[in-house]
Amino acid sequence: MMTRSFVLAAVASAMLLFPGAAFATSFTLVDQNSTAIIETGAGGGVLAWAVDDVNSLNLQWFFISIDGSDYVPIDLLGVAAGGSAELASDTNPFVDDNEDTLAVRYGDQSPIVVDLTLTLRGGQAGTGVADMAETLVLSNLGDVATSVSFIQYVDFNFGADPGDVAEILNANTVRQQDAAGAVGVAEEVVTPKPDLAAVGSADELLANITSGAGVVPDSGPVGPGDVAWAFQWDVELDGGDTFLISKDKRLGPAPGTPSVPEPATALLGLLGCVGLAVIGRRRA
Fold first, then answer.
1. Cα 282 to chain center, whole Å?
2. Out of 160-164, 182-186, 211-215, 227-231, least confident range
3. What CATH number corresponds to the domain at position 154?
4. Strands, E, within the chain: which ranges?
5. Strand partners, 155
6. pTM listed for this prediction
7. Cβ atoms within 10 A of the Cβ of 179, count?
8. Model pLDDT for residues 208-247, shown as the tens digit of each residue
9. Domain for residue 280, yes or no?
10. Alpha-carbon distance 135 to 118, whole Å?
11. How far apart are CA 20 and CA 18, in angstroms?
């Protein structure tokens, strides 16, 4: 698809600047009725998220700008420790013996490192419901204060023509659904709220990021069509500082109805509370 070509173009143009980047390593997370595919190396991202054997995710990934540099996918920072800093595990052993959580550290040759943890929670077969909890910790392992701009880009595809609709519901929450409102996804940023948020054309949002414009705010609603959303956080990290982002996505029929609760599971709430103790000083 067009959106994948944008990412691949960004990878090709930036590879020489990030010699630590490696070819993608693929991980498959499974929990009950849900499966997610993540590739961690250059050109990677969360490339699929299927519930009851139906995939609705085209691409989710993260982009970073350090001290005003162009935005690049975080995989171009390189997986730390030569690729050994990535671990898939089963954190739901009483349900099944499948790997449902992936932890990766990016930043092989940079004082700025990004620790990404994705935890998949499926529902009962046939319910169409699943959840993904995500935490990202940005750390400055150096001694010099560094400005960091960090972006999440998310492109789901639910409906056939005429496509999906999306809207920023409040400072922390976005929702995307098929045009009929029958199925969709809601994401809540548990902490901290993004500095900028936008919904819009999937290609246009991604082109803004890869061209250096970043997130151009637009709360919508937008669609029906091929829509996506993006969040941006801007932070100043002193040497030794950390900055934690905690979020949660819920897939299912008509997000926001009693049958599919809004995001912010107990797990994410706990992670958010713990993360408050380690959030670094944000740029004024």
1. 20
2. 160-164
3. 2.70.98
4. 26-31, 34-39, 45-51, 54-55, 57-66, 72-73, 86-89, 101-106, 112-122, 130-140, 146-156, 164-170, 173-178, 183-191, 196-201, 222-225, 227-237, 242-253
5. 59
6. 0.83
7. 16
8. 999 999 999 999 999 999 999 999 999 999 999 999 999 9
9. no
10. 7
11. 5
Please indicate, yes or no, if residue 167 is contained in any of the structural domains.
Answer: yes
How buried is 53 (Cβ within 10 angstroms: 0-12 exposed, 13-18 middle, 19+ buried)?
A: exposed
- At 130, list the tokens: 């699943």
* Domain boundaries, position 77: 2-275
Instruction: Please say whether the beta carbons of 224 and 163 come within 8 A.
Output: yes
Contact 28, 8 (CB under 8 A): no
Q: Count structural domains, the chain.
A: 1
Beta bridge mates, 60: 46, 154
Question: What is the rounded CA–CA span in Å between residue 183 and residue 127?
Answer: 11
Residue 235 lies in a domain: yes
- Tokens representing 14 are 């930036």
In a domain, 103, yes or no: yes
**Alpha-carbon span 13 to 23, nearest angstrom:** 15
User: How far is Cα 183 from Cα 129, in angstroms, rounded to an integer?
Assistant: 10
Structure tokens at 99: 């790997």
